[in-house]
Amino acid sequence: MSAPLRVAVVGAGVIGAAIAYYLQTGGAQVTLFDRGDVGGGTSSRSDGNVLAIDKEPGYDGTLALASQDLLARLADDLGAFEYRAPGSYLVLDNDGELDAARSWVDQERAFGLPIRFLEREAIHAELPDLADDVPGGLFCASDATLNPLLYTRRMVEAARERGALVRPHTPVALIVEDGRVSGVSTAAGERYAVDVTVAAAGVWTPALTEALSMPLPIRPRKGTLLVGARGPLHGTAKVMEFGYLMAKFGRTRIAAPELERYGVALVYEPTASQNFLLGSSREFVGEDVTPREPVMSLIARRALRFYPGMAQSLFIRAYAGLRPWTPDHFPLVGPARGVPGLVLAAGHEGDGIGLAAVTGHLVADMVLGRPAIVDPAPLDPGRFASA
Q1: Domains and CATH numbers, the chain
Q2: Mean per-residue pLDDT over the chain, rounded
Q3: Which of the pair, 246 or 279, is modelled with greater confidence?
Q4: Contacts of 232 (CB under 8 A, 6+ apart)
Q5: The whole model's pTM is what?
Q6: Is residue 240 exposed (0-12), middle (13-18) or buried (19+ Cβ within 10 Å)?
Q7: Is 316 exposed, middle or buried (0-12, 13-18, 19+ CB in 10 A)?
Q8: pLDDT tens figures, 310-326
Q9: Confidence class for position 385, pLDDT limits 50, 70, 90
Q10: Distance between CA 46 and CA 360 in Å, rounded?
Q11: What is the crossing angle of helices 14-25 and 148-161, to 10°?
């Protein structure tokens, strides 16, 4: 019997955790490293989205649906991580969005998404707390939510139970020998020789690969969330405004200039703890994760436009995280071009929680030589090489 493939996974956020889980369960010997706590970076500063409703028809939707299917199985295998699948809504701000929303539904339904358009009467029947002038909305039945930090830790625990080694608070550097990444080294001088190294450190992945003269087009995009106190909820399903899609993909949107400046759009997410999260924003401000008053105020004001009754809500805190943005909104997943021994898995922007399962499975497929769960070609890190 041959020895198991040795793999170092750098980054114990949700993406690295899923990769470690699927590799270890697939027969590899994994060592998982992180410079901080398990899930202590962006994964602990996000909401629990597992969405298909906000994915463009085609490959983007294929990834989302595949990940949702895997997640439903993980919910049975990993133990509780506050997983629920109540579906999600997109609500419209004005009549000018009606045609675009109907077109979005037609495209998504043709692709196979379980989505439907809701006229004014229907959306208010399903979401009675909405402002009276909301003209319509969309509902996707496959969408789910979870606790992102708990999800990350459950996958790491499961990988460890199956034999993976976990090294938090252990910054590492890549070992490069004869043009090949042959492992990682720690600040204490430890060297881990492995067959494959997976760089899955989110917005910090470019710093990890910097010594290879291999610039990666990943930028930190800040997102701020408010946390409501426990109390009456404004519905039990995820609700976003249709303009969230415009903010996400950088498209023209009918909105006030200050909303455009900070990429603010309604995101309402009830949690299993009977409080709710409120977002969202999108800013390029480096690695600053300090919640700022102008952005928090805009998020609150935007929520009141759709939920007037939220004026009576109390908020207990705010936090911000860094989405790993790429120019085409697809992550970099696959072997690093021209650098044997290195696989990249980063750049999921705001979709890391939702796409972690399919990413972890896909990387395991690549590393272990199995048929890929989805076509990996659109995620090839080499697609930006000419740029």
Answers
A1: 6-45+149-215+328-384 (3.50.50.60), 88-141+219-325 (3.30.9.10)
A2: 94
A3: 279
A4: none
A5: 0.95
A6: buried
A7: exposed
A8: 998 999 999 999 999 99
A9: confident
A10: 19
A11: 30
